[in-house]
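Q: What does the predicted 3D structure of ABC transporter substrate-binding protein look like?
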Amino acid sequence: MTISKHIKIAGAAAALGLLTISAPASAQTTYNVASLADFTGPYADVMKDLIGARRPVIDWWNAEVGKKIGVKLGIKDYDHRYDAAQVASLWPGIKAELNPIIVLGVGGPDVAALQGRLPSDKIPMVMSTAAYGFAWKPDPWIFNQRPTYSHEAAAFFDWLRQKRGGSGPLKVAIISSEASPAYVDQHKGVQRYAADNPDKVEVVEVVFTEVQPTDLTTQVNRVTRKGAEVIMIMTNTAAVVATKRALQSLGKQVPIIMSSHNGLAESGRAIGDVKQMEGDYEVYAMAAPTDAKTPGREFFEMLQSKYGLKAKWTVSAVQGLGQALIAMRAIEAAAKKVGPDKITGEAIREALLSTTISADDTFKILGNTKFSNEGPFPTQGLVASIATIKDGKYMEAAAGVPVPSINKW
């Protein structure tokens, strides 16, 4: 099957076994999706591609799937500035205005503010990011298609240690902040993995900074003198830029490992030239946006040509595509089970827990995704992609890297 045929079939109502129902267009029922965003906070630089990829997926779904099954989706963005208090303040108004059947979240503040509210509101939230240890609880209403940042980091550390060779643990420094629960969670998970696997990883220091640091020369000098072989920064691009500037001023060549929201392209733009990220890495449990002709890339290009997608082919866009597709496939499954005119948040949550969303369902942007009632993210069979800058070019360093198990922290 060609990729083009793959996209055509995947968009049909009978796509990939998810749907066997149909309804006349005149019988459409309209539902709303709440889209949380950060247009004015620390992640404003990545929102253009992330949010820019979400909306065209819904436009495509409405035209090529929803129309056939009698469902139409509306969507509205809400800027919460990546602040948990702002999320909590906005939420009652969002519910009253939209009565959403599902929420598309964007980060840690959404989880911190809403994880205690969504069960009683009976509205599930699908995240674009990796998960958080503080939300690793049974009976989830928040769903991450990726494991925690710590799981993804551990996959990278194991890979880099094997690449390095030798028997000693990989020495890791972490740049973090106590300003966000998500940031604290990232380093705590890695610390747990290091404590349980002292032969694999040693955390030489966790450096605490403000949310958007400007000068980290003293701190970076200290951790490099302690022998750090890699510096983990999964907070934001400002921290990456400050650390990179510090390494350059000190004449040190220690790679930085980033995540999807502050990765190579985003941090490269922030620092002025992606070539300055030579030898650095990003890791995440989803496809890397390389130049290879993949089903995900062709789906993206189809959205550009037919549905007005303006985003660039970046990691942030891949996040938005994966998130929106998980939500759309769950809505399809709910419509199949309860009927297109009876979809509720509760029905969508049940669909997320009972339906395996295959790699084909997401155009291989994600692997096979199967949630359970044990927690908010899949815990088995996960693999990660690792990308880097080599000779000034963005490229995949490794694919299918196993994500190790980590005990709860």
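A (community wiki): The structure tokens above were generated from the sequence. The longest strand covers residues 393-402. The chain has 13 helices and twelve strands.
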